[in-house]
Each structure stands twice: as C-alpha cells, then as structure tokens.
Design goal:
mainly beta; Thrombin, subunit H; 40% strand; Peptidase_S1C; hydrolase
C-alpha cells in the first residue's frame, strides 16, 4: 500500500496486490478456502472517539495522533506510505514503504515534520522500524493477543498520501502468508485500504494494535501482519538490518 508516482497504473486483478503501490503488484497463489466470497469492503468512516477524556487539546483522539505519513524520497522517485508509533521515538511500518530510500520524511496528523534518525527493515516479514529524533505525539497500547474471526477492526492511515482516514471492518479469516510462508499465518480483513495505506495500524474495538496492514487482495480484502508476528520480530535482536542506501 505504498502510493507511488513513479510507476504506471495497477495491472489487471491478481490474487494479491503487493503493497498496494500504484503499479506494484505480484501474481501470487489465490487465497485458500474457506474465505467468504460475499465480503464487501467497508467505506471510509469518520473516527468517533468513545470518550471525551481521550481527546487532546487540539480535538484529535490519541488513535489519530499516533498515525504518521511516510514519504520515501528514493533514487527513482517519490512514494508514500503510512506508519504508527509504538513508543515516543519508534515507528512501525512496512519494509516496502521504506525500501530504496534516499531520504525518509515523516509527518504527523497535524502536518508536523519529524526528523528521522535511523531506519531498519526485517529480513523476513514485511516490517520496518523507523526511529525519530523528535518525540511522537502519541502511541497506542498493544492488544493482549491476536484477534479472532469476526472481531471488529479499524485501519488508521493515509491512503494515497492524503488525509488521515479510519476505515472499519472485521477479521474475516486467516491464510498462509503468500509472500513469506515460513512466517505462518496472516490475517484477512474487509476493512478498506488503498495505495498509501501500507504500514497502517490495525486496531481492535478498544483502539489497541492487533496487526499491521501490508497488502491487499484483488477482491478488496486486506492482509495484516498479526500482532504476534510483530512482537516476535521485535523481540529478535537479529531480525532487523540497517536500511541500505538506494542505488542510483
């Protein structure tokens, strides 16, 4: 879901649209049964906080404040993606969002630019960590475990590199990760995502992180790296390598 201006239009529908980048697609095996065939992606909704005590002085909820827009200025062009804070100076996003970058530009919900100090990407999963010198305005809690089929899910990100949106849906199943089979299962949700949504946080009904958006299927479903995988990768000191400079 990295939105890019350096590639052509998305090709004909395939089983998986890798990263949801404009023109960045890969032909992969169809998702295995059973997966409901009558799921319709939900439309974008306006986030309505559950309680006024969660609002910041500027009127934005903590869930909105933790999401960031990531601009990848690479040797070959410009692309955009999303990310979210997990502590005051650490962001989670996708590996393909930050790959081949010359400069990473991070901005918050209110347009504030944050200086990036370092970035690293996971060797196996489509995950990356970005460190910022400037403090991030908010970060969410992590859920106690992975969600189950039927659980509510919201995706918070910056589709097309534009305004912050929150889309709602539910977990509709699981599948073997079509890109990284050794990592086991990933989650399938019908919450709507678009190019630029890669790296968005997927949240449960209580606003806790349950996964990371990384790809979209040709029938409009979204794939999530589950929380358990994210936690396992973050706990492995050897799982990440420093982001190499792009090649010109």
């Amino acid at each position: 879901m990295r939105s890019s201006v350096r590639r052509g239009a998305i090709a004909a529908p395939v089983a998986l649209v890798l990263g949801l980048g404009v023109g960045a697609c890969g032909v992969l095996p169809e998702l295995p049964d059973p997966v409901p065939s009558d799921i319709v992606p939900s439309r974008a909704v306006t986030f309505a906080p559950q309680g006024g005590e969660q609002l910041s002085p500027d009127g934005f909820d903590a869930v909105q404040r933790m999401a960031v827009r990531i601009r990848n200025v690479g040797c070959a062009g410009l692309s955009t993606g999303s990310g979210f804070a997990i502590d005051e100076h650490t962001l989670i996003t996708n590996r393909h969002v930050v790959a081949d970058s010359e400069t990473l530009e991070v901005s918050t919900y209110d347009g504030q630019d944050l200086e990036v100090s370092a970035a690293s990407s996971a060797r196996l999963a489509d995950l990356a960590v970005v460190r910022t010198l400037d403090a991030l305005p908010s970060y969410p809690e992590l859920a106690v475990g992975d969600p189950r089929t039927g659980d509510a899910v919201s995706v918070v990100g910056y589709p097309e590199g534009g305004e912050l949106t929150v889309t709602a849906g539910e977990i509709v199943g699981t599948t073997t990760d079509p890109l990284h089979e050794n990592l086991g299962e990933v989650l399938i949700t019908d919450a709507a995502v678009e190019p630029g949504s890669s790296g968005s946080a997927a949240l449960d009904a209580d606003g806790r992180v349950i996964g990371v958006v990384y790809a979209k299927t040709s029938d409009g479903r979204s794939l999530l790296v589950p929380l358990s995988t994210l936690q396992d990768v973050l706990a492995d000191a050897d799982a990440f390598t420093a982001l190499p400079p792009c090649s010109s």
